[in-house]
Description:
By secondary structure, this protein is of the alpha/beta class. It has 4 helices and 6 strands, in the order βααααβββββ.
Amino acid sequence: QFDQWSARSITGDDGEQLEHLYLAYFDIKQKLSSDKTPTKTSIEALNTISTALESSDAAGWTDEEKALLSHISQHSQKLHELSLATARVEFKWISQSITPLATKVRGTNNPQPFYHFYCPMVKEGQGDWLQNNDRLANPYRGAKMLRCGDLINTFDVAEKETDNKVDASVPEGK
């Protein structure tokens, strides 16, 4: 599905926030993989950042990128208050947006590759998720099936350097 990809670099504040969004996502994924409910701090970070980036004009977000950010925001509200099973269902929807987003945009300080995994046991064929390491840890099944899944792709931005950079710095005086 993401064989051909080329993430454009977002510089400045939006680029930094984008990388923080991915870090919050990875923290949530790790908690779910460990059969724990995600922390309020990570959920609020994911929700706040996705909402802020969606409304930012600095990075020149495309309509598709804004829709992905909106979807992340919608499905991350109150995720920490849900049961583990329900949180995993909502995480599936977040992953369905974060995975394509990561193939489209990254912050400029992004030396770390992302790893795209897929679990065939997730209903409706929507078992995709990203990790910031290549050690399979299934967030949908946790300890019961921690190693269920396949590495589908590695999104290594260092290998896909482009000149397509957008400066999203906050103008002076704002």
